[in-house]
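Quick one, T. Sequence first:
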Amino acid sequence: MRFLILRVLTHSELGMFHEYRRQGKEGSKQRAINFDGEVVDRVFPSALDTDRIELDLRLITDDGVAEVRQSLKRQDKNWRLEGHCPRDVIYDFVEPGCLFAMEIDAGGRPAAGSWAVFPRDSEVTRAVLGDGAAGGLASAGMIALHENEGAHIGRLLASAEPRLFSFWAGEEVMSEHAEIGRGNVRLPPNPKRLIRALGSVGHTLASAVADIIDNSISADATRIDITFRPPDEGHGRWMTIADNGEGMDWPQLSEAMRVGSDSEYDDNGLGKFGYGLKGASWSQTDIFTVATRKAGGEALHLTWDADKITDWEANSDPLEPWEQEITAIRDHGTVVFWKDMRPPLTAPEAKGISPFSAEEATLERHLALVFHRFLEGKALGRKKIVIQINGRAIEPNNPVGHPLAVPYDAKPLRAHLPNGEDAPVQVQPFLLPTEDELTNYHQPLGGSEAVRRAADLIGLHGRRNDTQGLFIYRNDRLIKWGGWHDIWTTNEEKTKLARVVVNFDPRLDDAFQINISKQIVHLPATLKAEIRKLAEVVRKESFARFGRGPKTLPPLAPPAPPSGNPTVPGAPGAPAGPTRDPDDTAGAPGPGVSAPPPPPPPTPPPRVTLRTVTTSKFVWKVGLDLTGRSLQVSDLDPSLSALAKRLAKDPEAASMLADFLERLDGLDVQAGLIEAQAD
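Structure tokens:
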């Protein structure tokens, strides 16, 4: 957790230096250097509950290098560095535009580091401000660069003042030189730079952890314990992901640590490419260790350290005592240990909690969603698993598991493989409850807090409008969710109740262009056309719910939610049609729940905006606009155009016409009409 903090000083901050005051230049009595809140959040992500952060800092004095105790003191949303005002004459050069640079190790309490000020017109200031890594200073008052992000700037500072910036003085580990002769040329890669490239596959912390958990599940683990402690507790930013799976022997461990391993994946496995462990780990850190033990076997471990790779040799050097403790395995299983992890580029924000706690919450929410079928014990051919973060068990969040969610028919489709064969894809639409229905269901059971939590879960802790669309599963593991994958170009507010679960066979990985991090999916056009037909039904019903106004549904007896994997290949199909008619308001309330009020009287059908247009591209077009459904009728068919003009002022008739023409679209009638007009 070592950072470089850079700031271009302003006039109001220079009163911290006695020489500036003695020269009569001081304009305010601030006598402290400002620290932006965003920078402090990134460097000290667990500092929400304190108003002061203690620092042991080295600086240059007239007598050489000295160490002083200073502190960052909270000032509203920002902070100030105070506690020591140098009296030294060497700071007689300070003026607005000087460069303030701090090296800080935030992995302990108090944090330790050093700071220096460089003249505005000095060579080092010009070089630092001219470096691309410092470009953020143009728009921000201060920036924080973590280790390799600021490596080049760190070396510039170390060359100017090695007594204070010693961490950055070392050279990068370089690969051995190419052996050049006549003919073939041996060109070994620079390990550290290659590792950075391999780690740049688009992982977030949450998706990287999920990739490690994939391996744990494939090893038949039933318990996964994640330890992720605040980074200022003494060892910086680190994490362990421990499971009780089968563990590995020495050949298996060696192969698992090899880049592009030849690991075999069964049809029910979650792995892909033999790359997940390394790619996920290197996306978060340059140093990671895998410790493992098979039942009755010895404890083994291997470490990759980007700074110590010479010829792609993973090392088995003894771990430090604290590392041995956190990677110890009692009987069998595997522990992945990430050391000196890189922090997020931007500190996550959440009301009322520290950035570190927000990051922990984001991780929990991601895993609760991605692995919900495994947490529920409903993954085909897998045991139920338990995932804990810092000792707290994760509760599954099934995106279509609410008791009021209405499942439609599960439809088996086929998708083509490159070898000419095909593989199964199962598609099932779901209609989610509205906000009013959630309130009616949860208010009697737990009040407004229960309603809020239910809305948060069903909205996946965001805006519900962003979570409509496809939820794509690979072997019961959710890999992509939200959005319509260009089946429709926008997420209409009134279709936000529509979700469609898509389960596909891993044999379709290439056809679906699944990327290394298993986060990107490209569905074939033919499959999207089939999904569209099934999704249209639930989208229309979602739209109709808003057109009819709020609906009161009776609370149901606690659920039997829909099966977690009703549509996985080989599983029994769902019952025909919705298992609960969304218009059915009959039924007894659950135990201890008062009967709901009677439903409101029927409201008129949703508004249809009907327009006649001049175009040769279509005869009619039914769609959605900002006010509701829209129907455009062209003058290609004069009779239909005349009818549309007569019905334009009759909302009910216009709605009926739109419904009829939409059914004709399913029969592909328009193509024949357009062709006939062309003849």
